[in-house]
Design goal:
It is built from no helices and 11 strands. The protein is mostly beta strands. It is globular. The strands form 2 sheets. Strands 2, 4, 5, 6, 9, 10 and 11 form a 7-stranded mixed sheet that branches. Strands 1-3-8-7 form a 4-stranded antiparallel sheet, with no helix packed on it.
Length: about 120
């Protein structure tokens, strides 16, 4: 079983930055198979960012392109989400997710971390 633990959420003013971390443990997969999603109040969970087939670059939701960056530290089995120029509409619970293969569905989820952006 895979365990995913997010951290780094919090309250930030519009225009500010946060960096989320997701540490994988247990039966771990390549960090290439990990990504980020978010769920705003009253809305469905949406895709945010994930790694692509190497050597292609990561891919992002249109709403975060140019502002968010996904990265990883393979030695630590950790994935990061750097969020810059935050907007109130970025307010959501952010979830880390993992899949067995890069072409598969995301089957493993963390507990989520709250990000609140004030205007």
């Amino acid at each position: 079983q895979v365990q995913l633990a997010e951290s780094g959420g919090g309250l930030v003013q519009a225009g500010g930055s946060l960096r989320l971390s997701c540490a994988a443990s247990g039966r771990t997969f390549s960090t290439t198979n990990m990504g980020w999603f978010r769920q705003a109040p009253g809305k469905e969970r949406d895709f945010v960012a994930a790694f692509n087939w190497p050597p292609k670059p990561p891919y992002y939701a249109d709403s975060v392109k140019g502002r968010f960056t996904i990265s990883r530290d393979n030695a630590k089995n950790t994935v990061y989400l750097q969020m810059n120029s935050l907007k109130p509409e970025d307010t959501a619970v952010y979830y880390c997710a993992a899949r067995r293969t890069i072409a598969g569905t995301f089957d493993y989820w963390g507990q989520g971390t709250q990000v609140t952006v004030s205007s």
